[in-house]
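sry for the spam today, last one i promise. struct tokens for design, 93 residues
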């Protein structure tokens, strides 16, 4: 079995659209390396804008690059908000 791809303290992007339900996407910090769920490694991650931590599986994360502007969880619109905005602006034009 391979080791964890990300390390404690590393900043990662979390894709909140993975899975059966929507989660808040954005930039998070890895706070703990967790044991695998089946064959997939897991992490405990925390956003600066949230009081709680969440669990993310490795396929839901991407390493943050230095030149890329950070989008925090509080500034990232949810897919529901994006759809509402699309419908609103479609009615204006």
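last one done:
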């Amino acid at each position: 079995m391979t080791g964890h791809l990300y390390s404690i303290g590393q900043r990662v992007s979390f894709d909140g659209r993975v899975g059966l339900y929507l989660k808040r996407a954005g930039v998070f910090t890895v706070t703990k390396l967790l044991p695998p769920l089946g064959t997939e490694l897991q992490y405990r991650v925390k956003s600066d804008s949230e009081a709680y931590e969440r669990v993310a599986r490795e396929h839901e994360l991407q390493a943050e690059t230095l030149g890329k502007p950070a989008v925090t969880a509080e500034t990232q619109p949810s897919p529901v908000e994006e759809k509402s905005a699309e419908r609103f602006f479609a009615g204006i034009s």
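The two ends are 55 Å apart (CA to CA). ok im logging off now
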